[in-house]
Every structure is written in C-alpha cells, then in structure tokens.
Amino acid sequence: MSGEDLTLFAGGSAWSPSSWRSKPARHQPAWPDAAEIEQATKALHDLPPLVFAGEARSLTGHLGRVADGEAFLLQAGDCAESFDSSADSIRDRLRVILQMAIVLTYSGGVPLVKVGRIAGQFAKPRSSPTETVGEVELPSFLGHMVNDIGFSEAERLPDPRRLLTAYHRAASTLNLLRAFTRGGYADLSRVASWNREFVASSPAGRRYSRMAEEIDRALRFMTACGVTTANTPQLHEVEFYTSHEALVLDYEEALTREDSTTGDWYDCSAHMLWIGERTRQLDGAHVEFLRGVRNPLGCKVGPTATADEVVALCELLNPQRVPGRLTLITRMGAGRIGTLLPPLLRAVRDSGHPVAWACDPMHGNTYTSESGRKTRHFDDVLAEISGFFAAHTACGTWPGGVHVELTGDAVTECVGGADKLIDADLERAFETLCDPRLNGRQSVDLAFRVAEMLSDRR
Ligand code: PEP
Ligand code: CO
Fold first, then answer.
1. Does ligand 1 come within 6 angstroms of the Cβ of 117?
2. CA–CA dist 372, 375 (Å, integer)
3. Which pLDDT belongs to residue 193?
4. What is the mean pLDDT of the chain?
C-alpha cells in the first residue's frame, strides 16, 4: 500500500482500496492457487472502467431525491446472472423493468429512479459452503464469477479466470443496455409495443394495454402541441443504472479507480454497489471496502439488525450525511416487517441521517414447496411491500422504493400472481441459478399494486 493510496476520512481510520484485507472477509471464494488469483486481478486492474465516476455521482443525486421523498427507486433484475444470458434474455429483462417503471410513473405519479441488478450480479453468498447430493459433498455454487453450477468437482472448483469473464460479460451486457436505453428502444411511443406478448393473455397485460393507450393519446396531444419524443430526450431515452452485490472483494478492488477530476475513489464495476445481509458486519471487510468508494451504496437489513447497528452503519458508510449516498434495503419477511421495521425507521429518523429506504420483499419470504422447490408466494411479496408502506406512514418517513428479483423469461418459479401459479406449475419452467424470480407478468402485476400504494400515499 503506497502512501498516496491512503485516504484519511474525518474521524475514521486510513482507507485504501486494499485496506479491507486486514479485516475478516466472509463469503470469499477459496481460490485454489495464489498465483492465478494474483494474475487475474492484475489483468482486471489494467482493463478500462465499466462505468464512470460522473455517472455514479448522477445516481447519487437521483437517490438523494428518493431520500428526500421526491422520487421512487425501482431496483430489479436477476438473483444470479448467468454467463450464458442471450441478448434476447437481457433485452426482455430490461423491457420488464421499463414496463414496471412506466406503470409506477404513470399510475403512481412519482419520478422513478431505475437501477438494474444487472451487468455484474455474478456472485452469490450461500447459507452453506457445501452442497450434498446422495453421498457426494461438493462446494456450493457461488455464482458464475466463481464456479459453475454443474455438480462435479471440476465445475465447482473456484476458478479466478472467471473474474475476467465476469468483467467481459458485464461489459457486453452494459453495452447492450446502453444501446437499448439510448438508441430508441426505450422511446415512450414504444410503451405499447413492449407489451406484445402480454396482451390479452393475462389480466396484468390487459391492464397495461389500457394504460399504454392512454399514454399514446397523451403523446398524440403533445405532438400536436409541438413536443415530440424525437425532440425531447426525456421521452426518447431512459436513464438506467447498474448495480450488484459487492461480494467478491478481489474483483471489486481491482476495478476501483481514482477519479481524475475529484481525486475520489470509485468502484467502477457498477454505478451502485450493495452490501448483503450476510456481510454487513460493522468491523468486517465489506463495510471497510465500501466506506471508501464514493459510489451510491446499498445495504441489506434483515430481521436480526438492531437499531444501534443500523445507525452505526449509517455513520460508517455515510459520515458526511450525503443524501443519496446510502440506501437501506430492508428484507424482513411479510409476517415480521410490521414489528421489526418501525424501530429502525424511528432510530434512523431521530439520528438525522438522510437514508433512502427500499423494500426487498423477496429474501425474507423464501420457503420450500411440497415438491422440494425453493419458491416465494406473490401474496407474501405484496404483503411485505404493503407492511413497508404502512410502517413508513406510521413513522412519517418515505417508502422510497422496491428491490425485486425478476426475469423477462416465461419462468414458473414464484407461485401466485394474476395467473394463479400453483406448486405443480413450478416443475414446468424452473430455470433460476439461485433464488426464485418473478416472471414478466407477475412483475407487471406487482408494479400496478405498488403504484396503487404509491398513489394512496401521495
Ligand atoms: C440477494 O439479494 O440475492 C441476497 C442474497 O440477498 P440478502 O443479502 O438480502 O440475503
Ligand atoms: Co436472491
């Protein structure tokens, strides 16, 4: 660590991109060969940044409006992205997120901040380090950044060369997203065309269709007044940001760069990074690493979090109290949010910390179905969001957003929703690499329900 790498934070201790190495780091891969991991991180270090500091600063600004109660965050995407995602699958995931965003903006009546769990969500913390099938015990699948999902010793061995593949997959995904969001695909006049495969085949699709007709009518009126999607960038393009869990710190450190205009450090692997529920220890390596980069940060907050711990996280991660710097993503479970969330909201409110609050209604509501599949019920997802809104209303705070796992593919991984999927349907198209995701119809359905909660709140 060189002298100039050190940054001294007001009241904090010295930070550098590698200072996390002196702290306990949970959920790191057991790389089998020290020389190989060194070679891979060195190669990553020499590659261009994936995102720019200025973009991360813009997102902090938008999230600051969420913290101030003036905008709503939609953070959504895959649980674990695959190296094998096709361009169509990436486009369809983006399309569902854009559809949800339109529903929330139009029916909910608030500006939306759109952040994908995409272009880098390749690493997973697992509850058990090993998986046993019959007599065979192997390392768990830790995401395509680390190993492969196939159940053999060779496939499950952590391979540092995957860090480089993760970088290149992230770069090509990001390139596609930039093209779709800037190149006309996201033009507001296309809202109806995004819905082609939903129309008439699901209640959420029909509801979406009616909304798209109203938007078209409004656009025709505006065109008659001289405001067209062609001459108005806000109607022609979408600001879309990327995020992932900053889990594998070798990867994140290697993509951390000093911004030449400000001298600040940014983790240039994504615009926003979050700390997972399993790695948010106050004295742990993940908090240490992320406190020093200037990207907007998320931190998951689960049922065991105490009010003191959450306020301490705010102090460590946002000592300068910058609105938009920190989003706390709560994931309590539908049955417990009503009792667990209000004390945290009050403690953070009373500490004066500006926090954007988002609800992850997925990770506290996972259960094993009778057929042995890990699944989630749409009604529990909805109930947790409803409890989130109620807790914020009771505490006088702003329910700032939702964080969901979804795909645009026609999977059957979560039960319930307008199509009333049941346990028996899970066998049909259960494709996830990790947690069960909402499919396109369930996602659009969810957006309408959240939009109702939002417009009631306003
Ligand atoms: C996730 O977001 O995929 C995840 C593992 O969540 P959590 O850290 O909240 O368990
Ligand atoms: Co998940």
1. no
2. 9
3. 85
4. 94
